[in-house]
Amino acid sequence: MAEIEGRRILLRQAAVAGPPRLRQVEISVLLAHPTTEILAPVPGEETAAAAVLSGLADEEDDELTVKGAAPPGGAHRLSAR
Fold first, then answer.
1. Which stretches does the entry tag as region Disordered (predicted)?
2. Domain boundaries along the sequence of the chain
């Protein structure tokens, strides 16, 4: 890579013989090309919320469950501890 300007990247190809060749491309084209590799660490897997909630004790589950009918106006009222 020789230069970045906005959405355009100037690529420099080092030739075996002769001067290097330059080629300007849009970053979206470069990223969409099948041979492009992103050299960044892959984030670790996160446990799904359903899996976490399925492991709660009954008391903990009861704390998260809204019980009863909706008050007039249709909205439930939640209180924070």
1. 62-81
2. 3-32
